[in-house]
Amino acid sequence: MPSPTCYLLLNPSRTSHRLLLPSPRLPARLARLRVSCDVPRQGSDGGGGGPKRGAVPAGPGKGKKQVVFFDASPPVAQKSVGEEGKAESDVKMDGAALRLLRRTTKRTLSVLSNLPLAIAEMFAIAGLMALGTVIDQGEAPSHYFEQFPEDNPVFGFITWRWILTPGFDHMFSSPVFLGMLALLAASLMACTFTTQLPMVKVAKRWSFMSSGGSIKKQAFSESLPRASIQDLGVILMGAGYEVFTKGPSLYAFKGLAGRYAPIGVHVAMIFVMAGATLSATGSFKGSVDVPQGLNFVIGDIMKPKGIFSAAPDVFNTEVHVNRFYMEYYDSGEVSQFYSDLSLFDLDGKEVMRRTIKVNDPLRYGGITIYQTDWGFSALQVKKNGEGPFNLAMAPLKMSGNKKLYGTFLPLEDSDPSSVKGISMLARDLQSIVLYDQDGKFVGVRRPSSKLPIEINGNEILIEDAIGTTGLDLKTDPGIPIVYAGFGALMLTTCISYLSHAQLWALQDGTTVVVGGKSNRAKIEFSDEMNRLLNKVPELISANEKTVDNKSSSA
Question: Does the predicted model carry a pTM greater than 0.70?
């Protein structure tokens, strides 16, 4: 028995050892035992002064100390009626608030997990993505003022305000697009918690049926005379089923992974959307045209694309264009262009060198450098053996996507009021067309030919054509997440096609009642069951022959 709680009390009474009955003011369970002890009396010996303040009053030579033992802890102080009412009111308010929160959460999950709502969200996202491919992205506001003027709206009502106000000039990072992604992610999570997870829990539960009538109500049912659930279990295990028996009942299933797959599909879609959101809000992007032989610092051209963009240390890397060159078709059209790039760290050490081309970018430290365009920077020309002179090539306006560049080499003239010279035109880096000071065609020279040409009494030699490489640079932290999400999406989508089959059986005398169902591939499931159940009589016959052979041998 546990030790009682002890309280040491000073009592001047002359009470001897006695058992106190329960007081009417205390609960019956708090019956106590009081033990009196003699202790030396404190105070003066005195004659007429009486006991001092704080001392134990004098008795017949001794004071009394009492140890009182309770068989339980002393009673808790009782609260007043007002305090009890306030406490009960607080409890009721807390309970009501909790019930309201639960009802609100349940109603919200029910709305978000609605299938038509999720389908509408996906259609809205697809529409926004299509709109983002139609509207030019990332252009200056003046571009949209010209394309969507207020005095001549597109389709009669679309002006630049419809583009710039909701942020459709950067569609994939606009609040509307990101909000739709967040809403679809919430719907997927709600569907997972309210529908998919409960279905998995039900599918994992071993459920035995004890009634033959319930088994016969399944999508597939059959009766096997002169059979046992043990023989049926052996055949089902051979077909890949998980088999469980309990007395005369049997339960088997296979394809449980097909039940988990929809959850994986939802998680994969959320990964894809999370990666896309991170790409839209945490990436950098920049573009630059660099002549051959020059360089640039990555951080000088990169611009953040979202609120979560953080510049890495690799932005201090310097890129040098060693060489730019192009390849051509037999028709003379450009087929491919290349850039030989070197990357240097802050100490000037070359950390990487690589030649890139269209669809074959350079990747370093999370930065991707794409070959996207080309241009004509300058011509190196010698005049009468002097030079070379670098003549800047200027782009000329042409219809369509065709490119044409031109430059001018002035000649000495006695008339200072007019400037005359040699004109040079080029469509690409492989051939230069030359005209004299009167604008007459003189000839064509290739920079690699090193052949001079005489124009207006001057010997002109084209040494080299210096091209300009057009590069796009990008950091995108969301790409690995998007790739992982798409990979998981493909895998879980394939797994979701696996059918989840369940089978129940009951031993009824010498007959086994069998029934089952499948969530998909129902015809194939019925064919499989017929094929497996036809093996039961064969197994029984084989067992009987084995028994007969053993009996004959004995």
Answer: no
